[in-house]
Amino acid sequence: QVQLVESGGGLVQSGGSLRLSCAASGIIFSIYSMAWYRQAPEKQRELVAAITSGGNINYSDSVKGRFTISRDNAKNTVYLQMNSLKSEDTAVYYCNARYPHYWGQGTQVTVSS
């Protein structure tokens, strides 16, 4: 079955950095577009960054210039490098493969001010 397993979340001070990883199995990773979403308490889930199978990338305006998405097809893994973190980045971050959509279980990122 399809599994997306996130790791790398945690507690970090404002201005700090974290790197999230998502290891995929059960799919032909190289042909899937991959994305990171996040959901803060009492807010809707929102797209943070996405990378297509061909390497095209887009970011939400709120993270542009601070976050970097990348993928390693040899390792079936997608990454999210998060720099200059702010308290408003606090959320559960979810890995997504599409289409069809598959989701990871989420990893908590908490940024303290």
Write the layout of secondary structure elements.
Blueprint: E1 3-7, E2 10-13, E3 18-25, E4 33-39, E5 46-51, E6 57-59, E7 67-72, E8 77-82, E9 91-98, E10 102-103, E11 107-112
Parallel strand pairs: 2-11
Antiparallel strand pairs: 1-3, 3-8, 4-5, 4-9, 5-6, 7-8, 9-10, 9-11
Labels describing this entry:
7-stranded mixed β-sheet, single chain, 4-stranded antiparallel β-sheet, 113 residues, mainly beta
Concise overview:
This protein is mainly β. It is 0% helix and 54% strand. Strands 2, 4, 5, 6, 9, 10 and 11 form a seven-stranded mixed beta sheet that branches. The protein has a four-stranded antiparallel beta sheet with strand order 1-3-8-7, with no helix packed on it.
Question: Describe it for me?
Answer:
With 113 residues, this protein is mostly beta strands. It has strands at residues 3-7, 10-13, 18-25, 33-39, 46-51, 57-59, 67-72, 77-82, 91-98, 102-103, 107-112. Strands 2, 4, 5, 6, 9, 10 and 11 form a 7-stranded mixed sheet that branches.
Roughly how many Å apart are the termini?
A: 40 Å
Structural class by helix and strand composition: mainly beta
Strand tally is: 11
Sheet of most strands: 7 strands, mixed
Rg (C-alpha, Å): 13 Å
- The count of helical stretches stands at 0
- Spans of at least 5 consecutive residues whose pLDDT stays below 50 are none
